[in-house]
Amino acid sequence: MRYAVYFTPGQNDPLTRVAAGWLGRDPFTGGQLPPPAVTTLSPAEIAFHTASARRYGFHATLKAPFHLAERVGEAELDQELARFAAGAEPVLLSRLVPKRIDGFLALVPASPAPDLDRLAGEIVTHFDRFRAPLSEADVRRRSPESLSPEEFRNLMQWGYPYVFESFRFHMTLTGRVPDADLPRVRAAIDEVFATALDQPAVIDGLALFVEPEPGAPFVVKSWYGLGSRLKRKTA
After folding, report:
1. Tell me: the pLDDT tens digits for 26-62?
2. In principle, which of 59, 218, 225, 229 could form an S-S bond with 209, CB 3.0–4.6 Å?
3. Distance between CA 18 and CA 215 in Å, rounded?
4. Comparing C-alpha atoms, which of 60, 11, 10, 53 is closest to residue 35?
């Protein structure tokens, strides 16, 4: 079983609902959803392009998936996430916009967000005591030969290459899209997400995602509003 600290909007947020439809799965309930009707892609094409992102659910990685360290349990991790969220402040972004990153399409902030970068860094360090050391197989899965020296150091120290200066907030919408398909996939995303993205975005909660067994879809265990001492959602 692995755990991750992700940002995702609350279960009933319009962006959450639209993204769950696009990806074909709701990580809050585990339910499967039919693809949306769009003018540029068939349902089968949407299902194909979203297959790799579907397993993880709509999210932005803040503390990448990890096995629990010895002598700590799920309840302790969950309680600490609630405590941390209660003491953190929401981060307002100008907007989220679709962008191609390393071949896949994701939602990213439209402008630099230093407060978000700081929050992400705090989460990486604060929750590292809950993380078991990486196994050799874990390291190999990250293709260390393809990482920069800084990313490799991050991987070995923090369990994930893309933290601190290497962090890029993104909410993945597809797998790698071939150049030939990119215009149609991007047009479909614009069509589906237009209304949900036509307003400022706020990073207002943290979710504990769980992978029950290797390769299983990630599901939301709990969701906590930033600055709130109330648990907003327990799956």
Report:
1. 999 999 999 999 999 999 999 999 999 999 999 999 9
2. 218
3. 24
4. 53
Sheet holding 104-109, edge to edge: 96-101, 104-109, 171-176
**88-132 residue pLDDT tens:** 999 999 899 999 999 999 999 999 999 999 999 999 999 999 999
For the chain, the maximum distance between any two Cα atoms, rounded to a whole number of angstroms, is 52
Cut 0.85: pTM above it: yes
Within 13 Å, how many C-alpha atoms sit on residue 56's CB side?
A: 19
Single-letter code of the amino acid located at 92: L
Query: How many CA atoms does the CB half-sphere of 233 hold within 13 Å?
Result: 22
Burial class for 165, CB neighbours closer than 10 Å (0-12, 13-18, 19+): exposed
**What does DSSP assign to residue 32?**
B
Q: Helix, strand, or coil here: 151?
A: helix
Distance CA 190, CA 38 (A): 10
Contact 63, 69 (CB under 8 A): no
* Token pair for 38: 């769009």
Q: What is the DSSP string of 33-90?
A: -PPPP-SSS-HHHHHHHTHHHHTT-S-EEEEEEEPBPTT--HHHHHHHHHHHHHHS--
Q: Kindly report the length of the chain.
A: 235
